[in-house]
């Protein structure tokens, strides 16, 4: 794991130029953002933004002010503890729900003790800016939403904007691979489909066009046929479309061809380390130029393999395209550039590891070319994988943290290394450093190194909680914000017993923080960024655990689509405060306005609406 501290803790203020925000409306067209109505008329908008807000275009203009309105019913001056339980979702109780199995009396008491102060919020899909409800949330987009108070485009929407605006070709990732264009080949690997779940054909077409216009002289495309998110058999049409595009490039003097292919479920696109053989089949075809089937063109390949092997598009065996002499036309070699074009992360992580890691033992790579590799996006923010990517995270301005600091809120943030960047960098809109060093303190506790997290499942939960406790009792801070990583990081190991221990440790840490809040008469907000530990087994469509060929359960190590809890309370909570019932679809982005209210302020008018109300006694 790479440490964040070299990036995060720079003792300087953060400033960025301000500009116009663009969001995607319901018809998926680009539109300019219009200023929101007054707070009294506003409802939860759930608009998806790409970057900054036109409504607050100029910090220096007479229209803009960092000053937040006072809340008419909620007082200032209360210490607010914000605790993010990483990977802590809500699912049906069974033996594979480690949160349910673990002894978690503190979290249990929050759920059962005051129902009007506990609820669930959405932490995946469109609630955090991802394209569809099939997209699992993750720590990066989750903390972006928690801190920003608005939903910013992530995934496919972000790629669309980067391609349409041309920003993709100006970024560090593209300039990194561009170094290979003069003498090497640009290889594009990914799903050939317009399904829009993992990739889109039109994005590939734009990338081909833009790359050729920005210096790529030799391009090879390694296709993965779909048939899962689109109709089986549609791969032939997609290949025909791609071949026409490549022919047009060749007419312009670009040496552009399809180099290899195979079905997505049989070649390259495995996930959760279920079957490294899938990735190896892709490696052999894409890197080594070796496959059981060889053809002169990809249309012939797909048609023939569908007919002769009776395989559908998902399971086409790997093939390579060869020249007149029978040599592969596009193996990846030293000096080449490689881009994995999928925007969805889960089925790109394994190939990214094989392309990027020097120390790699999952299969024999035979030959490891010296390449420049970039993902379309960064697929795993915790692993910083890949290190280079074409589309950067969204630029997020006016985060809740920045507003609160400008309004005098003194802030303490803490976690251990693996999640330290999430309560600082990602929370603050993908920006390093302090907003105001005189009002902020960020503390990183080094994570265990050299071992997997299930070996020490308690991780640094106790140390984080003690730092938070000390910050609360010091009376130096108005907000104390922490991330407890246990449920997520131990859950990813697939070790159920260790994950149960991890959940218990996180619960004990919450207790320490709540006791401190009770002592100072403060307020707590307990929530999570996405699910993980609440479901540790793969399931069929009826919800029953899946078994492998030996009859053993198939362990799930990924995040989930489950909602996450949010609980509020403490002696400092004003009488009558409760969760509203008219925001049933509330998500992580609604938490920022909620926290601002608890500090005694009304959130900016374009923030997602608060989750709380003050009932008249």
UniProtKB/TrEMBL annotation:
The Metalloenzyme domain, residue ranges: 78-601
Gene Ontology BP terms: glucose catabolic process; glycolytic process; response to blue light; response to carbon dioxide; stomatal movement
Subcellular location: Cytoplasm
Lineage: superkingdom: Eukaryota
Family named by the database record: Belongs to the BPG-independent phosphoglycerate mutase family.
Coiled-coil residue windows: none
EC number annotated for this UniProt entry: 5.4.2.12
Gene3D superfamilies listed in its UniProt record: Alkaline Phosphatase, subunit A, BPG-independent phosphoglycerate mutase, domain B
Quaternary assembly: Monomer.
Cofactor: Mn(2+)
Pathway assigned in UniProt: Carbohydrate degradation; glycolysis; pyruvate from D-glyceraldehyde 3-phosphate: step 3/5
Main enzyme class: isomerase
Keywords: Cytoplasm, Glycolysis, Isomerase, Manganese, Metal-binding
CDD domains found in the cross-reference section: iPGM (cd16010)
A Pfam family that the UniProt record links to this protein: Metalloenzyme
GO molecular function terms attached to this record: manganese ion binding; phosphoglycerate mutase activity
Protein's UniProt name: phosphoglycerate mutase (2,3-diphosphoglycerate-independent)
Predominant localisation class: cytoplasm
Transmembrane regions: none
One GO CC term, this protein: cytoplasm
């Amino acid at each position: 794991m790479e440490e964040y501290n070299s990036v995060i803790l720079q003792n300087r203020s953060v400033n960025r130029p301000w500009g116009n925000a663009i969001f995607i409306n319901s018809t998926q067209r680009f539109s300019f953002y219009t200023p929101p109505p007054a707070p009294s008329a506003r409802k939860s908008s759930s608009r998806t933004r790409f970057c900054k807000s036109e409504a607050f275009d100029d910090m220096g203009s007479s229209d803009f002010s960092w000053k937040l309105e006072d809340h008419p019913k909620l007082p200032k001056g209360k210490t607010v503890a914000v605790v993010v339980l990483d990977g802590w979702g809500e699912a049906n109780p069974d033996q594979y729900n480690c949160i349910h199995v673990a002894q978690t009396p503190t979290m249990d008491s929050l759920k059962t003790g005051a129902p009007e102060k506990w609820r669930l919020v959405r932490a995946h899909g469109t609630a955090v800016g991802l394209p569809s409800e099939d997209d699992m949330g993750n720590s990066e987009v989750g903390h972006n939403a928690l801190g920003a108070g608005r939903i910013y485009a992530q995934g496919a929407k972000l790629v669309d904007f980067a391609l349409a605006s041309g920003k993709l070709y100006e970024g560090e990732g593209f300039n990194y691979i561009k170094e290979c264009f003069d003498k090497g080949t640009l290889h594009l690997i990914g799903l050939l489909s317009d399904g829009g779940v993992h990739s889109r054909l039109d994005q590939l077409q734009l990338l081909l066009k833009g790359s050729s216009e920005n210096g790529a002289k030799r391009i090879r495309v390694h296709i993965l046929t779909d048939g899962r998110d689109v109709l089986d058999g549609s791969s032939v049409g997609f290949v025909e479309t791609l071949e026409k595009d490549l022919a047009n490039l060749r007419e312009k003097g670009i040496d552009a061809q399809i180099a290899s292919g195979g079905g997505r479920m049989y070649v390259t696109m495995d996930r959760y380390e279920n079957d490294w053989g899938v990735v190896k089949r892709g490696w052999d075809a894409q890197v080594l130029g070796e496959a059981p089937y060889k053809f002169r063109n990809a249309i012939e390949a797909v048609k023939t393999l569908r007919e002769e092997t009776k395989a559908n598009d998902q399971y086409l065996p790997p093939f390579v395209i060869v020249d007149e002499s029978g040599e592969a036309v596009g193996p990846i070699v030293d000096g080449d550039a490689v881009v994995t074009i999928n925007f969805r992360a889960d089925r790109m992580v394994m190939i990214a590891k094989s392309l990027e890691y020097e120390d790699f033992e999952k299969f024999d790579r035979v030959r490891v070319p010296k390449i420049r590799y970039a993902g379309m996006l960064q697929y795993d923010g915790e692993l910083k994988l890949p290190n280079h990517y074409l589309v950067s995270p969204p630029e997020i301005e006016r985060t809740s943290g920045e507003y609160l600091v400008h309004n005098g809120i003194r802030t303490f943030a803490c976690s251990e290394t693996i999640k330290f960047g999430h309560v600082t960098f990602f929370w603050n809109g993908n920006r390093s450093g302090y907003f105001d060093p005189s009002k902020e303190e960020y503390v990183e506790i080094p994570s265990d190194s050299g071992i997997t997290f299930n070996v020490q499942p308690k991780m640094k939960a106790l140390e984080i909680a003690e730092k938070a406790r000390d910050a609360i009792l010091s009376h130096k801070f108005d907000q104390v914000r922490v991330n407890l990583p246990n449920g997520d990081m131990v859950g990813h190991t697939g070790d159920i017993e260790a994950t149960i221990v991890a959940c218990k440790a996180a619960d004990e840490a919450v207790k320490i923080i709540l006791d401190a809040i009770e002592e100072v008469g403060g307020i707590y907000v307990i929530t999570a960024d996405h699910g993980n530990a609440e479901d540790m087994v793969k399931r069929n469509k009826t919800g029953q655990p899946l078994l492998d060929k030996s009859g053993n359960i198939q362990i799930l190590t990924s995040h989930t689509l489950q909602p996450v809890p949010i609980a509020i309370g403490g002696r400092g909570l004003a009488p009558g405060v409760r969760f509203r019932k008219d925001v049933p679809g509330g998500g992580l982005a609604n938490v920022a306005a909620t926290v601002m209210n608890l500090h005694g302020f009304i959130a900016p008018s374009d923030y997602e609406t608060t989750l709380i109300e003050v009932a008249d006694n």
